[in-house]
Design goal:
Strand order of the largest sheet: 1-12-7-6-4-3-2
Number of domains: 1
Number of strands: 12
Structural class: alpha+beta
CATH architecture: 3-Layer(aba) Sandwich
Distance between the termini: 8 Å
Helix content: 25-40%
Number of helices: 4
Shape: globular
Order of helices and strands: EHEEEHEHEEHEEEEE
Largest sheet: 7 strands, mixed
CATH class: Alpha Beta
CATH topology: Trna Endonuclease, Chain: A, domain 1
Strand content: 25-35%
């Protein structure tokens, strides 16, 4: 896996000519988002398997990350959680002023998932990696293209403990969050900076 360093990453949203809107969607199509993410999961699985070094497959363990990666002899080497992000948090400075984040660099993850991945790592001691797939953020990703960024949950846990509540945001429930009577949409997100991740030259 090749990656690029983002330590010098900075974009000024105030100077942007293709600025993202800061209006909440209000409508959250949970089922559509799941299907869309699964397409990227499959793409990553196929790419890993083509390398011939590891075997990747959809994880079957309940509550575990999306993808399980094993060595050729069948030993699990790591888990990957794949999150597709088509929007950024344009009002992050307003709502999370102590977060040390600006809109262009911000990515999010369901906090309950994040904490569960911490627990999984501490239980099985197998690396868990979160992969963010970014689209539609033109200061970073060219139009009609995508880019991947990732980080080990051990590093994410360090950041989580450092920043605590300052990076947590609860949005209002919206249309599409409830599926067959069950609230499945993400309403509590935890936020990270692209500068805290690694770029995957996919």
């Amino acid at each position: 896996m090749h990656y690029i360093c983002l330590s010098d990453f900075v974009y000024d949203c105030q100077q942007c000519h293709t600025r993202c809107d800061g209006i909440s969607k209000g409508v959250y199509n949970f089922q559509h988002d799941v299907s869309f993410s699964e397409g990227f999961e499959q793409m990553i699985i196929e790419r890993i398997n083509r390398s011939g070094k590891y075997h990747a497959a959809k994880s079957l363990a309940p509550g575990y990350p999306d993808v399980e990666i094993s060595s050729i002899d069948g030993q699990v080497q790591r888990y990957l959680e794949v999150k597709v992000q088509k929007r950024t948090f344009m009002q992050v400075k307003k709502y999370l002023p102590a977060s040390d984040l600006c809109p262009s660099e911000t990515v999010a993850l369901n906090e309950s998932d994040l904490v569960r991945y911490f627990d999984i790592y501490h239980s099985v001691h197998i690396p868990v990696v979160v992969v963010w797939v970014l689209l539609n953020r033109l200061c970073i990703v060219p139009e009609h293209y995508f880019r991947l960024y990732f980080q080990d949950v051990r590093r994410l846990e360090e950041i989580y403990k450092k920043y605590g509540d300052t990076r947590r945001f609860r949005r209002k429930s919206g249309e599409g969050d409830v599926v067959e009577g069950v609230h499945k949409g993400v309403t509590v997100n935890y936020h990270f900076s692209l500068k805290e991740l690694k770029g995957w030259n996919f």
